[in-house]
Amino acid sequence: METLTQILNWKSVEDWFYVLNDLSMTYIILPFFVLELIRYTFLKQMSWDIVKDSIANFITFGAFVLIEYALGFLFITKLYFWVYENISLTHLPTTWITIIACVLLADFAYYWDHRMMHRIGIGWVTHTVHHSSPHFNMSVAYRFGPLDAVFPLLFSLPIVMLGFNPILVLFCEAFVQVFQTLLHTEAIGKLFKPIEAVFNTPSHHRVHHGSNRQYWDKNYAGILIIWDKIFGTFEPEVEKVVYGVSEPINSNNPITVFFHGFTRFAEKLKNIKGTTNKLKAFVKPPDWEPSNKYEK
Question: I want to staple 155 with a disulfide (CB 3.0 to 4.6 A). Which of 71, 109, 216, 252 is the partner?
Answer without folding.
Answer: 109
